[in-house]
From TrEMBL:
Protein name according to UniProt: Ribosome-recycling factor
Purpose: Responsible for the release of ribosomes from messenger RNA at the termination of protein biosynthesis. May increase the efficiency of translation by recycling ribosomes from one round of translation to another.
Keyword Cytoplasm: yes
Domain Ribosome recycling factor: 19-179
Lineage, opening ranks: Bacteria, Bacillati, Actinomycetota, Coriobacteriia, Coriobacteriales
Amino acid sequence: MSEYTDRAEKNMGKCLDTLKANFARVRTGRANAQILAPILVDYYGQPTPITQLAAVKVPEASMLVVEPWDKSSLRAIEKAIESSDLGITPSNDGVCIRLPFPKPTEERRRELVKECKELAEEARVAVRNVRRDVNGKIERDEELSDDEQSREKKSVQKLTDSYVAKVDELLKTKSAEVMEI
């Protein structure tokens, strides 16, 4: 592999990682600890991620349990979850916070699939942007002959096709997961 395909693969891999992270935040009927990752708690005046303040467990498929290590932060964690746009009402029992994940309706699942398709399209565009940038660098490289430039571009195109196929496969898997009752 050349330096161009290495650079393209590295950047396309980042696009795929971003898509996986975005898919993890799409709320299905299943409990997923990743959904709490972007929520920050005001802990002694510092915005702190929930995962640094508590153990997040999944005791059953439709329930998350947040157990803070410092019990005095329980109320702050509950407040942060309530003020986030998760749409889940936390229940505080004085020891831990339980987050029940209700099963989405058929209509809501279709909306979630549409959201997933939009995220996948953004990832495809990002992968194609990587291809465009790398192809531009190949064209500006005066040390490469026309044949070498053509070979490099074909190699980058193959890589692009494989990453777009990976995005499509991730979308297919996530859509099936969302539509599952």
